[in-house]
Amino acid sequence: MTNVQEYRGHIRNWEALCQELEIWPGLPREDMEHLILTKAYKKWGYDMADHLHGMFAFALWDVDRQQLFCLRDHFGTKPFYYYQTADEKLLYGTTIQKIMDQPGFVKELNQEMLQIYLTLTYGAGEDTFFKGVKKLLPGHYLIWKDGELKIERYWKPEFHPDESKSLEDWADEIHTTLQKILPEVKTEKEQAESFLSGGVDSSYVLAMSDIKMTDSCGYDEERFDESHLAAETARILGRENRRRCITPEEYFDTVSYVMYHMEQPLGDASSVVFALACKAAAEHTEICYSGEGSDEFFGGYNMYRNAERYGENLKNFYVGNTNIMKEDEKKKILKNYSEDVLPIHLVEHIYEETEGLDPLTKMSDVDIQLWLEGDIYLNVDKMSMAAGLEIRMPLTDRRIFDIASRMPSKYKVDSEQNKVAFRTAAAKVLPEEIAFRKKLGFIVPIRIWMADDRYNQDVRAKFHSEIAEKFFHVDEINAIFDEYVGGNSDNWRKVWTIYAFLVWYEEYFVKR
């Protein structure tokens, strides 16, 4: 007998699994997915994740073996945490707050994470900002039995380039695979909307779905506002579009909300916009589609076009999509700096796993294993949950990754374009000007708002606060801030990353 102790997620291939595991598909969703988990565990044991598609993190109590079995999905779309108490009990859950609320938890700051965070803008690896609280990493499961903890890796990204296919062959495979996946993302009875930007990912997902209403964010600052592109895409595809205009006042008013619900500091300025987008969407839907995953799988970032230029030197510096502060700068601003805590240590095993593969594949794998889990999926999960919204990501799927893992890099990026094969697939249902539109990213006017004295007063206050004094040489971080306000807009990410940490620390170690 097996009991579900903890579960968050959406099992995408539930219909096929119900048939194989002899489960009546008419059950309420939660009951049905709990049955899928327990029966899959009985049938396939520790290999059960090989048979599941979707987003999931769960804990099962095996009554017969008297052991706990916890598992996190392949890409880490849903979080899972655990903590061993002084009296050798295991606390666990899909949120850190659930662990914090249990007897035996002792709240202490893991200060080493600040050093990692100031480079990456997120907490990478298995450690968290709370001492002793660990993340179960993507593609791993945990067994707790008789007071002993065992963690195993059941899946990792692997790449086997196939040179036998043409660009059109790869585009066809992407397209036909997405056609198979989309009907699984929701049932006919479920009502959903879709986030829509000006980019190809959300546009392609929308074009392949039956979604009628789309949700977009915009700003009064025209050079940062993509919402008109989203509205035009919706019009072309015959869908409706709802625009949420975000003001600098509500943006800054939302920062503490974001850092509290994120549970760890995240220096991604777009997370605040995403939080507001989730709140707005949750007013009229419970489910929303989003387009995360394809950039890392198919070479979507502009920096990937420089991969060949970096060559073997990658393993000496490339730690992922973000690299905000170098070690020399962190030494200057941090009161406690350790030579042994380096972000590059987090990716050494990835470079060992990709030995002999091309530079683009190495960069992609670093971002799949660190950036997606530590930033993108964390943001999606935490902000949607806080708003009471469920987000489903059709492009984050092992069947989509399987294509990317076999695709040669020449079909991912070239000298002119990124995501070449993916865009070619999207062009089957989108006008070329949308499918091949230059990637803009999730841009936010924070770089100009934070330099404006009408909006940055809390930033100034935090940079001079007692909290800042605990961790930073205040003169040094204010020199960065003053240089930014004085016109060096390149410093905005450094300022924001420090500010986000200070807000988070106040939420968890001062107010609570």
From TrEMBL:
UniProt catalytic activity: L-aspartate + L-glutamine + ATP + H2O = L-asparagine + L-glutamate + AMP + diphosphate + H(+)
Binding site for L-glutamine: 31
Domain of life from the UniProt record: Bacteria
InterPro entries noted in UniProt: Asn_synth_AEB (IPR006426), Asn_synthase (IPR001962), ASN_synthetase/amidase (IPR051786), AsnB_N (IPR033738), GATase_2_dom (IPR017932), Ntn_hydrolases_N (IPR029055), Rossmann-like_a/b/a_fold (IPR014729)
Keywords assigned by UniProt, alphabetized: Amino-acid biosynthesis, Asparagine biosynthesis, ATP-binding, Glutamine amidotransferase, Ligase, Nucleotide-binding
GO molecular function: asparagine synthase (glutamine-hydrolyzing) activity; ATP binding
EC number(s) per entry: 6.3.5.4
Protein family according to the UniProt entry: Belongs to the asparagine synthetase family.
Protein name: asparagine synthase (glutamine-hydrolyzing)
Species for this entry: Sporofaciens musculi
